[in-house]
Design brief:
Blueprint (H helix, E strand, L loop, with lengths): L3 H11 L3 H15 L3 H7 L9 E3 L2 E3 L3 E3 L10 H7 L3 E7 L12 E4 L4 E4 L8 H14 L7 E5 L10 H12 L5 E5 L14 H15 L6 E5 L5 H13 L4 E4 L18 E4 L3 H14 L4 E4 L5 H9 L4 E4 L1 H6 L2 H9 L1
Parallel strand pairs: 3-4, 3-13, 4-7, 7-8, 8-9, 9-10, 10-12, 12-13
Antiparallel strand pairs: 1-2, 5-6, 6-11
Bound molecules: flavin mononucleotide.
Amino acid sequence: MKTFYERLVRPLLFSLGPETAHHFTIASLSKASQFDPALRALKQFAPPARPKTLFDLNFPNPIGLAAGLDKNGRALPAWAALGFGFIEIGTITAMAQPGNLKPRIFRLPEQQALINRLGFNNDGAEIIAKRLSRLRGSGRWPGVPVGINIGKSRTTPLERATDDYLYSFRLLRDFADYITLNVSSPNTPGLRGLQEPAALSRLLHAIASEAGSVAKPIVVKISPDLSPVELEAILAACEENGVAGIIATNTTLDHSSIPPECDKEGGLSGAPLREKSTALVRSITANSKIPVIASGGIYDAKSAREKIDAGAQLVQLYTGFVYRGPQLLREIVEEL
Ligand SMILES: Cc1cc2nc3c(=O)[nH]c(=O)nc-3n(C[C@H](O)[C@H](O)[C@H](O)COP(=O)(O)O)c2cc1C
């Protein structure tokens, strides 16, 4: 049976272009975040509690909002009211930037997938830090862990990437329960080069040296397109530098699982990414003790269970949430 979201909300959103639908959703949830009655109404979707502790943080349930849906941190209270066990905002870059030319998000409904080449469109670390500060002052800060995902500004050359991450890190760390270093988005030229062991170690070392007395858990988000040798080197660099967790995975550049007539340039997410992403979770948990947050192709209770069975501690949703809506949270929580 179709849910309220699938019957009414999704047809309305899907009658708009993907990016317009996205703006409409964020604007609505941002407005709702300012009104207690609206937040109470959203809470009717919230799933029952399934508490979980990781990085010394308490998660009311293990299902998080993946990075990219609320890049600018505009609707934190609404995501918490909908029942997400944690919220990851970003990717945020040091400088505000417009991202790539439109169109840059494509729906593949038959495949329950999306392709995007947004390229880190975001308001920049300074403006977002001010927004988060206002939210904190308003007393509406959500009662669930908040992760802040940071990446490299497009115009910063790769050799200066560390400075770029450090700039955002310094401005945003006080608002974060954990910080994600995104080194795996396919839409910023050269970014995935930061997954190479020497470059990754430099970045991790710089961030670890900076953290000082109020050290925040550092999480690294990786690509599903890594070879076993590359993965092994990344795990070694993460272990040497005290990384708290790994998010596996970002979107894929491997489009072999979708029909060529649907293909577009960009990162593929949703159901066609599921197996590849789960395989990576399995390899990480087989070869390392670093906790894994699984992201990639979770669109029902079974695909979420698959990630937990592969050894993931927490999961995150993006594309599945676009297709299935808030009911997906309850469906998954009740299965776990
Ligand atoms: C439109 C769109 C934008 C995204 N933007 C970001 C981003 O800014 N930073 C990031 O780390 N991941 C980003 N992602 C990747 C998601 O966080 C997630 O890791 C990926 O889509 C796989 O999960 P899914 O299959 O549930 O969508 C984006 C994904 C989509 C579809």
